[in-house]
Input
Amino acid sequence: MERFNAPGLAPTPGYSHVAVATGGRLVFTAGAVPLDEEGRPVGPGDYAAQTRQVLANLARALEAAGATGDDVLKTTVYVVSEDRSDLAEVWRVVQESDLAAAASTLLGVSLLGYEGQLVEIEAVAERLDATEG
Output
């Protein structure tokens, strides 16, 4: 996998402008949500707590596909808010994770699927086959 920033574009706050798969298999995840193993919401009203749970759930999904956060090419981060400070709080938690370098889109949205859900993250990763190293 190759990640880089494009010449002539403004510097990014931690993500890459471009990620290129170089020969592995692509892994696409559904949006990871802030539910525990029993399907109960985690962190009501707490953007950081929900983001941490979403990242943990996303890591489990990637692991099931033989990938890790370091293999992620692209993320889309959805945040229920019109307030940029809420988006910044979620982004801070994402930047502390192993997804930080991935190309990323951060969106403020009006509603997500579960009652009280504030954050959802989906990812595209590249998994190398064992024969490819």
Remarks:
- The two ends are 12 Å apart (CA to CA).
- Helices lie at 47-64, 84-95.
- The chain is about 25% helix and 25% strand.
- The beta strands are 2-4, 18-20, 25-28, 72-80, 103-109, 119-127.
